Amino acid sequence: MQMNEHIVDQRLPRIIAIANQKGGVGKTTTAINLATAMAAVHKKVLVVDLDPQGNASTGFGLDHGARAINSYHVLIGETSLPRAIRGTDIPGLSVVPSGVDLSGAEIELVDMEDRFYRLKSALADDIDQYDYVLIDCPPALGLLTMNALIAAAAVLVPLQCEFFALEGISHLVHTIERIKKSFNPLLEIQGIVLTMYDQRNNLSGAVANDVRAYFGDIVYDTMIPRNVRVSEAPSHGKPVLLYDTNCAGAQAYIHLASEVLKREHRISN
Ligand SMILES: Nc1ncnc2c1ncn2[C@@H]1O[C@H](COP(=O)(O)OP(=O)(O)O)[C@@H](O)[C@H]1O
Ligand SMILES: [Mg+2]
Q1: Side-chain half-sphere of 141: how many Cα atoms within 13 Å?
Q2: Residues with beta carbon inside 6 Å of ligand 1?
Q3: pLDDT tens for each residue of 70-84
Q4: Which domains, from first to last, does the chain contain?
Q5: Cα–Cα 20 to 30 A to 116, which of 5, 16, 19, 209?
Q6: How far is CA 178 from CA 50, 78, 144, 184, 216, in A?
Q7: Residue 10: its pLDDT value, please?
């Protein structure tokens, strides 16, 4: 019996939420490019866009037609998750897009008894072909992000190298602890990635040092540099890895993916 359970577990995709309640810290950029870098090493990856702004969907070049059925319909129970999956130009990488409807989901979910578990249930559907599910969370700690943190096995936190970085993250860590206690005891922090690192800026270096001193090994060695190619790529509907493979930002995401996968390997063994 236990053995069977183990085998079943092995087949499930690992679900990683990319979360930080602050906006503009690199969640979506990390979801898009980490997913692409994982797909480049032949992992099957599903990105779930859980932000009503739909930046991840845009970043993969999905037009409005492709978003007609989206994560809102999945959460509300109007469709199954597999039916909301859309392919991308990247082999092995698919997306559940989001749509503006999603901004109303928090209110619609409030009255549902299982409101915290909507995404978890949806992800229990037949998606065994994926190795990883990356959830791009909205910039808030509301019901959508809670659904992601309850569905996930691990959370990856992008942290922008700026002055208030540490303040926001203590709130997030507290929320993660609360979710572990009440909803999802096995949730772990996969890691913290420092984003928009600017080596010419002393503050960037100071923040990076502070974060490492405070969080130690949880922080990935890889830092994502501030790189204009990274910010240009979404307007072309492409991950930076396709837009300009050789730029510093793309290379950093390749390194990050290898660190993430190394940690995953350690966890699964
Ligand atoms: N490494 C980077 N270099 C330059 N610009 C970046 C980088 N990472 C993200 N950006 C830009 O910063 C903005 C916020 O990033 P985004 O990933 O959308 O953050 P979030 O999803 O946390 O709100 C976007 O315009 C994005 O293109
Ligand atoms: Mg975002």
Answers
A1: 14
A2: 23-29, 55, 139, 195-196, 224, 226-227, 230-231, 234, 249
A3: 999 999 999 999 999
A4: 12-268 (3.40.50.300)
A5: 5
A6: 21, 30, 16, 9, 22
A7: 53
